Amino acid sequence: METETINASQVPEFTGMAAEALKHYYTTAKVQTGSVAEKIAALEANLGRFEFSAYGGGETPDMKLRAAERVYLHKQKIPVQ
Amino acid sequence: MTSPTPPTLDFDRSIQASENLAAVIYNLSELCLMAHTLRAVEWHITEEYNKDEFPIILVVEPGVLKRWRSKSWCFPTASFAYIWIDDSLDRDQKRICIAHEAYHILEYFKPVKSDPVRLEDICDQFANALCRQHDGFYRNPDKIKACMFGRLPINSKRNAESHA
Prior knowledge:
The structure holds two protein chains of two kinds.
Chain A (H helix, E strand, L loop, with lengths): L15 H13 L7 H12 L5 E2 L6 H15 L6
Helix pairs in contact in A: 2-3
Chain B lengths: L10 H19 L5 H14 L7 E6 L2 H5 L3 E5 L4 E6 L4 H19 L9 H20 L2 H7 L17
Parallel strand pairs in B: 1-3
Antiparallel strand pairs in B: 2-3
Helix pairs in contact in B: 2-4, 4-5
């Protein structure tokens, strides 16, 4: 099992309507309380296999998850504050 | 059930509307950063990897630096790619970031990968080389002159004396 170091303060979660939409998606995919890796896999079922690169490197699993969430929200036309 | 006929404008109002929309589209086009580069990357990927299409969507918005601690990031998949850029960057920084992320997208498809340990340096190399060529273009009076429209206004009517 993947070991993850999650520091929520470093990668802020989405809030409001965006959070609700993600909660709904994760609940439908049965990963609402799942790990970062499980949530990434659930989003890949929608977006396809993806890669994530941040300028300057230093990518972490939670950054990758947040990017996948952002893309999902954009495709669903859900506003992010 | 047939669709209702859409309302139409008379000729004068149609002309005014087209001029208004030309201004809107032109103003938007000035915000389309590195548009030729992104189109060229799309073209290259569709040709080299036998795809019907490969859209690259560029999103410029606030909060990228705050949330991901990066000026930009990219998200390639087999069928599309996204590039996210922080809104607070200046124009040059935005353009360089786009060029940098474009190489990550190209890298996604390359059958022989770049040195993964120094990939960020390699993307910087590509961005610098590409932007240097862009800069050369803008400093070349002949290239700029070639971009000017030599014959305006155009007239699309067949058998018109002056036409593009």
